[in-house]
Amino acid sequence: MAHLLGAEALHLEYPTKVVFDSVTLGLNEGDRVGIVGRNGEGKSSLLAMLAGRQRPDAGRVTVRGGVRVGVLGQADTLDDALTVEQAVVGDAPEHVWAGDARARDVIRGLLADIPWDAPVSTLSGGQRRRVELAALLAGDWDVLVLDEPTNHLDVEGVRATDLARLSGQHKQVIGTMVDELEALGYVRRKPDPADRRAKLVCPTDRGQAQMRAADKIMAAIQDRHARRLGRDAFAQFKAAFLDVTEHQRRRQFP
Fold first, then answer.
1. pLDDT at site 218
2. d(CA 243, CA 1)
3. Is-contact 187 202, C-beta < 8 A?
4. DSSP 8-state secondary structure symbol assigned to residue 83
5. pLDDT class for 173, splitting at 50, 70, 90?
6. Number of H helices, E strands in the chain
7. Res 15: pLDDT
8. What residue ranges do the domains of the chain occupy?
């Protein structure tokens, strides 16, 4: 199989930590590779290096001439001034993208419930993530680099029992919270098509607007702390905090 890209003796370190050392790998046509590790172990950094978006402290990445690399990072890079159609297919005429079976399948699978002419600025975080993923998958690439592509994807809804399990709260506590959120107009309950005895908790437009506002507030808070502590120190603190949180969740829900 044809060689597409490779890495030789990659080294990355921060002032207080060596993230990885002497990483060597190769990617051939047809390969599907998953990178598994704990938070802060350098998964995103390694992907960024392979995609040419970050330079290693030592070592090198080689890409065969003409190879096209498509990347989905964790950051939201959508332009709020675009519509969904423009973000996904650009200026391509409808007969061009509609005649592409792969593009049609991607759009139908990821964006069926999102208006094609909706401004990107009106979308929820999960909808924006799906638009980014659709835009990438509808393109023509030799290599796809996906950094946690399913993070924050909106779904039809979530069961209150799942909310309880994920949050560590008793299901009666979650049920009371859902009742209050529904009364405020932030969520609504609907039948779960997979289980007629269950209900899904779905965010309303008002609820999604509140989530977007909360996301902006949290991003501003994190940016302020990162500037005060330094980006590297804050990234290490955040990774350690997430590790502790995940450890506590696993102890409660093994």
1. 73
2. 39
3. yes
4. B
5. very low
6. 9, 7
7. 81
8. 3-67, 84-136, 160-203, 207-252
Helix (H, G, I), strand (E, B) or coil at 62: strand
Structure tokens at 101: 């079976």
- List of long-range contacts for 195-202, beta carbons under 8 Å, 24+ apart: 198/159, 198/161, 199/159, 199/160, 200/156, 200/157, 200/158, 200/159, 201/157, 201/158, 201/159, 201/160, 201/163, 202/156, 202/157
Residue range 68-94, pLDDT digits in tens:
998 988 888 899 999 999 999 999 888
pLDDT at 166: 42
Q: Please, what CATH class does the domain formed by 3-67 belong to? A: alpha beta
Q: Would you say residue 198 has pLDDT above 80?
A: no
Would you say 97 and 138 are in contact if contact means Cβ atoms under 8 Å apart? yes
Phi, psi (5° rounding) for residue 132?
A: -60, -45
What is the b/e burial string over 91-121, where b = at least 16 CB atoms within 10 angstroms of the residue's CB? Answer: eeeeeebeeeeebeebbeebbeebeeebebe
Measured in whole angstroms, the distance separating CA 46 from the mean position of its chain's CA atoms is 16
HSE-CB at 201 with a 13 A cutoff on CA atoms is: 21
With tokens 């529904």, the residue in question is 182
Angle at 161 between CA 211 and CA 76, to 5 degrees: 30
| Cα–Cα–Cα angle for 213, 215, 219, rounded to 5 degrees | 120
160: pLDDT strictly greater than 60: no
Of the candidates 193, 157, 192, 147, which has an alpha carbon nearest to the alpha carbon of residue 178?
A: 157
Greater model confidence, 253 or 74: 74
